[in-house]
Each structure stands twice: as structure tokens, then as C-alpha cells.
Amino acid sequence: AIWKNIRRRDIYGREISFTIAALSLFFIIISLGNYGFLFKPLWESFPPLQFFRFPSRFLLVTVFGLAVLGAKGLDLILPPRKYDRRPGILVILAVFDLLFFTNKYVAFIKADLLTVPPETISSLSPADKTFRVYTDSPYFLQLYPTKGWKNIAEIISRVRYTLPPNTNLLWGYPSISDRTWFEGGLDLVRRTEIETHLTKLFDKKDNLYPAAKFLGLYNVKYFLTYKPVDFVEFKEIKKMHLGDQFQATIYIYENNQFYERARFVPEAVVERNEKDILPLLSGYNSYPQKSVLL
Predict the structure, then answer these.
(1) pLDDT by residue (tens digit) across 30-79?
(2) For 203-228, what is each residue's pLDDT tens digit?
(3) Nearest to 277 by CA among 188, 212, 194
(4) Residue 8 φ/ψ, nearest 5 degrees
(5) How far apart are CA 268 and CA 288, in angstroms?
(6) Under 8 Å CB-to-CB from 185, ≥6 apart: which residues?
(7) Smallest Cα–Cα separation from 120: which of 180, 165, 156, 171?
(8) Which residues is 135 bridged to in the sheet?
(9) 3-class SS at 149?
């Protein structure tokens, strides 16, 4: 049907169909991200494209374009009929789907479920908010597969117990992974570099001192995770089981390598190679009490 529409005889209709087909193909190539040859130069030179956030979302344009081409192609292939029941049947099926399937997903949540502070908040210092928190919950264990994507209001409330990015803002606890952190100062690229480096540090389970120091340099006092951490620099202050239906436990650790946001040091060390900054910060040759790395 799509090919028939592109090869139609009338020039005006063919031009429109060819334009839609070309745009659909263009956005397929863009959706490949770094695996395609167009994504990176366009992403870096044309900022409005960043509103899509993820390359796969460019396929929305492709899907819409293919739907239009297919529909117009069917009009050319199928013989005209004075009375056709099929559109009415499709409308009935669409309404049935909306009424009996779509409404199973969460369309709204009671405000109390989202605004009442979770139990984990009570474990943090309420009077002293001159620190940041960090959670690895978005990158490791996910609670959604335990119940699927339907009726997930309870899951959404449970996920918020680990203070995932942006949720921490509801209760005024700064984090190193929320939007205010990278949009207000660090850009997305720098944030990705830091979190990738953190992931590598936490992979060294036998020695988490570099991870503790690195988090401490970013003013992280509390670390929330679904995975138990057995290392002297992280002191467990609370463990909370989310329930048998989730089979998950939240651990809250206090970082013994915590540093204040502002502090005086006697010297500054300049590192001209930017790629070496993160390894140096978490290495054994840097002393936060003595120097600052520029």
C-alpha cells in the first residue's frame, strides 16, 4: 500500500507521498543514534532536536508518516464502496480498547501517595541539609517487573523510597543525580561521565574506598541502594524491606568520607588533561583535606 501510494500517477499526490516517505526514512536514520551517520552532527549542531531526549523517539515521526502513506495507499488499491462498515468497526474496537485495557494503567495518583515523605526520609538528618544524597536505584534493581506496567500506583510510591533522581526535590534533599544538579550547573554529558565513573568504582566490591571518597567530594553523605554494601567507609543506618510482593530491601548508608560543600585547603593542583580528572579524584594520590584539583 505504501509503495502504491509513492508510485501514484498524479504528480501532486506523488510529490506529497514522496516527501512523507523521505522524512520517514530520514527519521529512521536519526533514530539509530550513534550507530547512524547523521545523529551526532545534527544533535550537536541543531539544539531543538534535543527535546526528543532519546534517539528512539524520532521514530514517532516515522510511524505517523508510514501510517499516512499506508492509509492513502489502501484508498488507491481498494475499490470504492458506497457504504463501508470497516471504519465503524475500527472505531468500536478503539473505544473498547480505551475503556477496558488502557484504563488499567495509572492515569492519576492520589496526592498523598506522592507527597507524604517515605520512611527513608526519617533516617536522614532533618535539621542539617548541607549534604547531598545519591541513589543507584535507577540503574540496578527495578521494581516494575514484579507487577508489570498495570496498576503500578503502589510500585511508584515504593520506588520513591530510594529517593530516585528528582524525587528528592519534593522534600528538599539535594542529590547528585537530579535535574537541578546537571541542568543548573553540570551538563548531561558531564553527569553521564561522572555516573559511569561511579559505576566502575562500585564494581570493585573488595575496595569501595575510592567510591566513598569520590561521593564525599561531591558532598554525598547518604547513599541509598537496593544492594547490600559491605565496606567500612559505608555505615549502614537503616534497612527496610519493601514487602513480599516486591522481594526488595532498601539500604541506607552513611558515607564516612563525607566532605562539606565549602572548605579551606592549603594548595591547589592543576591538571590540564580533563580526562584524567575523575581517576585522580578517586585515586589514592589525591588528598581532599590538603588540596583541591583544578
Answers:
(1) 888 888 888 888 888 887 777 777 788 888 889 898 888 888 777 777 77
(2) 887 888 889 999 998 889 998 888 88
(3) 194
(4) -60, 160
(5) 10
(6) none
(7) 171
(8) 224
(9) coil
